[in-house]
Write a structure and sequence with these properties.
With 427 residues, the chain is mainly alpha-helical. Helix content is 78%, strand content 0%.
Length: 427
């Protein structure tokens, strides 16, 4: 009896004010991020070649279906963000998990271009978009001063686990075929996401806690901030700088990943060497995510944006010049550094700049732009290759985009914090 009572007290402490639940949220959201893999490019890429062959589609047709399905799915993300604000991350995550699994099952039954497009709509909207949005928003709600560190750890953990997805999915495809592999992925999502969603808590106040786990007296002197609405945030220049950086990284990074085997093959790498390049990308991305999480509250945002965009431009140049060996590894490092840093940066600074009252709606708009942008990358590179017989011309055409964003970051100021009227009169 004494052992049982002790366990109950320990469980109560873990859920009560004396045991901060935020660090559990970090772990839960890392797992949720990993489970978006079947809807991410890194997961879908495993299915591309066998589906092209079975459905008798060209690579451009596959990329077009991916583009249209992704764009259509992106349209719903602002509404999903609003539902997070209204119903909380817990209920929203469970609903998304149910829908995402159903969409993966539907992918097993695609028979042509139209059904493939609809399938991509479902898995991109619910996997890459909605589930990623709820996971990253959840961890941001539990932290304030340590938000950057928490976001970095959650994102890095999720990306590390997600890096295993291509190997696991490829093994399943080789064993049972691509149609059954989609069903296996759906089962994995249901088994994992639904319990994780149940364990989430919407905000520290739900457990009588405060962000960062600090005591009430520690934050009593801090004047409360007024949260921005989505419309107000959309009138902020900083919002559009962040949106530009995120969408550029999403569009170009997705295009590079989607065609990586072919792109690096053009530079003389074997299929195995090209696939192995995901390793330096993943390792560097993890390091950049954690480092950005630590730095985001210590240095000005313009430097992080500029650094991420410089790495993206370098990756595009190296994609045209790399050869087997160190230059190919440098390409992977540049891709990983750019993607990892901009993901952690966005998740950490949006609540800091605009508050948490409408953070779901604000980030939902940002995610819609990002997911929509990822649709264009694969098609742009595919069309560029079909027209020129090489990826180099289209990559040269796109290089100025991140460079212009890096320059713009030097001139965009941070949003001005607004305080409640009570705070302004008493402070």
């Amino acid at each position: 009896m004494s052992v049982t009572l002790r366990r109950r007290r320990m469980a109560s402490a873990a859920l009560g004010p004396d045991g901060f639940y935020g660090w559990r949220i970090v772990g839960l959201t890392a797992l949720l991020t990993a489970m978006t893999a079947p809807g991410q490019t890194v997961g879908v890429s495993v299915f591309v070649d066998p589906m092209i062959q079975a459905l008798e589609l060209s690579r451009s047709q596959m990329s077009l279906a991916y583009l249209v399905g992704t764009l259509a799915g992106a349209i719903s993300l602002p509404a999903i963000g609003t539902r997070i604000d209204r119903h909380g991350v817990r209920r929203t995550t469970i609903a998304i998990g149910l829908g995402f699994g159903a969409a993966l099952v539907a992918m097993s039954g695609v028979a042509g271009f139209v059904t493939l497009l609809l399938g991509f709509l479902g898995i991109r909207m619910l996997g890459q978009g909605a589930l990623s949005l709820t996971a990253s928003t959840s961890v941001a709600l539990w932290f304030d001063r340590r938000r950057g560190t928490a976001v970095g750890l959650s994102s890095a953990g999720g990306q590390a686990l997600m890096s295993l997805a291509p190997l696991a999915l490829a093994a399943v495809v080789s064993l049972v075929g691509w149609r059954s592999a989609w069903v296996v992925a759906a089962a994995a999502v249901w088994i994992t996401v639904l319990p994780l969603g149940w364990l989430l808590r919407d905000a520290p106040a739900a457990l009588g806690q405060r962000p960062d786990g600090v005591a009430a007296r520690t934050v009593a002197h801090r004047p409360p901030r007024v949260s921005w609405t989505r419309a107000e945030a959309a009138r902020s220049p900083m919002f559009w700088l962040i949106a530009a950086a995120v969408t550029a990284s999403g569009m170009i990074g997705t295009g590079l990943a989607f065609h990586q085997i072919s792109l690096l093959g053009e530079r003389g790498l074997s299929v195995t060497e090209a696939a192995a390049n995901f390793v330096p990308q993943t390792l560097t991305g993890l390091g950049a995510t954690v480092l950005t999480g630590v730095l985001v509250d210590r240095i000005r945002p313009r430097f992080i944006v500029g650094g991420a965009m410089a790495c993206l431009a370098a990756a595009m140049v190296l994609a045209q010049t790399a050869t087997p060996g160190l230059s190919a590894v440098a390409f992977g490092v540049a891709v990983g550094a750019s993607g990892g840093s901009i993901r952690a940066f966005e998740t950490a600074v949006m609540p800091r700049f605009y508050g948490v009252g409408s953070i779901g709606a604000i980030r939902g708009l940002l995610f819609a732009l990002n997911v929509g942008a990822t649709a264009f990358g694969p098609l742009a590179l595919a069309v560029g290759y079909d027209v020129a017989g090489s990826y180099a011309p289209i990559l040269s055409l796109l290089v100025p985009i991140p460079l212009l964003i890096a320059v713009a970051a030097l001139f965009v100021s941070e949003p001005v914090h607004r305080m409640t009227s009570e705070a302004s009169t008493t402070g």
